[in-house]
Amino acid sequence: MEKHIDRRIFIEKSTKGMAGAGIVAAVSCSSSEKAELGKQFIHHVFFWLKDPSNKEARDKFEKAARELVTVETILDFHIGVPAPTDREVIDTTYSYSVLTTYRNKEDQDIYQTHPKHLKFIEDCQELWEKVVVYDSVSI
Prior knowledge:
Blueprint: H1 2-27, H2 31-37, E1 41-49, H3 55-68, E2 76-80, E3 96-102, H4 105-113, H5 115-124, E4 128-137
Antiparallel strand pairs: 1-3, 1-4, 2-3
Helix pairs in contact: 3-5
């Protein structure tokens, strides 16, 4: 029982320390660094698979998407499927979405011609019937 108490205290202290470090790190960003972070380029792609119930096709797409998001200029990414939401304004007809973020348009341009992106298209284009892309920059 003593170990659990010590472990819990350690975890609590570690968590508080990490939270404090995060606050310090956020506060210590310069104005120019914060401005640069605010100018990120968002690239959000929605895919409708020809046969969304085909497990082999889904596995192939997911494996290729996981490799795609290893392109060096990608800051962050999200590979997802429609959330179980039910509101009139939400489109849940797509099979997958891939959201990637970049420092700027130039980094996203590098991604567009990157061999991993071109390979993803070559290997997976037979799987989808429709693709819709939304690119966004901060205002």
